[in-house]
């Protein structure tokens, strides 16, 4: 079965800079993802990684966990991504955005592409998969429709510890919160968003964890323009461009060699993430 998006849906994405809700994973699949996450956390703890687990999951989790790769490569997800980005797809990062129950963790208004070193490209898309109920109470994302049509604007860094972003960055723009759309999702539903859209999310006031598994997809034409090199996995089609160092998916959870490789990738990517920053990035972004 082909899950390609209808032309009108693709046009809506190009106009608004986002799409949701997309029904991508059914209840069985979400249950499986939860048990694989539990298993991975247990493996991590057994390997003595307790203190590092949150940061290992926060970015580049696809380098450490086989199940994250399986979820990212599901045809029902990639068919939809390919409708927007075309047939050749790279996975640049997989990231868990977890807000524990009753927590103050927030994400300030920002444009993703600001510190990634990937330029102002339209050839990047985030797929945000809800693994819990995600609503206004639990701190869902909010989008400003059409804001992706602007260029990347200057951002101010707060380095606030409650902020899940690397520098606690905030876009320097007048945001009219009345225009914001709440990205309410049920477990298994996915939203897509453009790398220049203004977006944010509030604290989790609910009594359950709010969990998002987030995939950053690119086409091979995108280039790293700040760091000397960058890494990605081919998840569909081919890459003959030479812009990327290709990585293979991991074979087991939290393998020591994969953790070392991730450290190298983080160190390189941090050169773009930290460019011009007055303070060091939040723990976890420097490898
Ligand atoms: O999960 C969140 O609340 C924000 C995620 C985000 O900023 C992103 O996926 O680009």
Describe the structure.
This protein has 287 residues and is of the alpha+beta class. Helices cover 25% and strands 22% of the residues. The protein has a seven-stranded mixed β-sheet. It starts with 6 loop residues before the first helix and ends in a 14-residue tail after the last helix. The site of 2-oxoglutaric acid has 10 residues, from β4, β10 and β11.
Q: Using the 3D structure, state the CATH architecture.
A: Sandwich
Instruction: State the shape.
Output: globular
Number of alpha- plus pi-helical segments: 6
Q: Domains counted in the coordinates: how many?
A: 1
Q: Give a quick account of the main beta sheet: strands, pairing sense, barrel closure.
A: 7 strands, mixed
CATH topology: Jelly Rolls
Quick structural gist:
By secondary structure, the protein is α+β, with helices and mostly antiparallel strands. It is 25% helix and 22% strand. The protein is globular and about 45 Å long.
What is the topological layout?
Layout: H1 7-16, E1 18-23, H2 27-46, H3 53-58, H4 66-72, H5 75-85, E2 89-99, E3 107-110, E4 124-130, E5 141-143, E6 155-156, E7 170-171, E8 181-182, E9 189-194, E10 199-201, E11 210-218, E12 231-236, E13 245-246, H6 256-273
Parallel strand pairs: 12-13
Antiparallel strand pairs: 1-9, 2-11, 2-12, 3-10, 4-9, 4-11, 5-8, 5-10, 6-7
The protein binds 2-oxoglutaric acid (AKG).
Supply the key terms.
287 residues, alpha+beta, Jelly Rolls, seven-stranded mixed β-sheet, four-stranded antiparallel β-sheet, 6 helices, 22% strand, binds 2-oxoglutaric acid
């Amino acid at each position: 079965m082909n899950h390609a998006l209808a032309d009108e849906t693709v046009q809506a994405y190009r106009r608004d800079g986002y799409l949701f809700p997309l029904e991508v994973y059914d209840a069985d699949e979400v249950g499986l993802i939860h048990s694989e996450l539990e298993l991975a956390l247990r493996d991590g703890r057994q390997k003595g990684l307790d203190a590092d687990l949150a940061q290992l999951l926060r970015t580049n989790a696809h380098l450490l966990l086989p199940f994250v790769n399986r979820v990212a490569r599901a045809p029902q997800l990639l068919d939809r991504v390919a409708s927007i980005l075309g047939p050749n797809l790279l996975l640049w990062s997989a990231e868990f955005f977890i807000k524990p129950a009753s927590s103050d963790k927030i994400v300030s208004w920002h444009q993703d592409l600001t510190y990634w070193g990937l330029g102002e490209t339209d050839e990047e898309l985030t797929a945000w998969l809800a693994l819990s109920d995600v609503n206004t109470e639990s701190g869902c994302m909010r989008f400003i429709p059409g804001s992706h049509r602007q260029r990347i604007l200057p951002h101010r860094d707060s380095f606030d510890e409650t902020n899940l972003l690397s520098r606690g960055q905030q876009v320097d723009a007048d945001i009219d919160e009345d225009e914001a759309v709440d990205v309410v999702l049920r477990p298994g539903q996915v939203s897509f968003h453009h790398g220049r859209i203004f977006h944010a999310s509030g604290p989790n006031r609910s009594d359950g964890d709010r969990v998002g598994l987030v995939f950053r997809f690119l086409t091979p034409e995108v280039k790293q323009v700040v760091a000397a090199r960058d890494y990605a996995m081919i998840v569909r089609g081919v890459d003959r461009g030479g812009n990327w160092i290709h990585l293979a998916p991991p074979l087991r959870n939290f393998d020591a060699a994969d953790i070392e490789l991730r450290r190298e990738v983080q160190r390189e990517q941090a050169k773009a993430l930290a460019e011009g920053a007055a303070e060091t990035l939040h723990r976890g972004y420097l490898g």
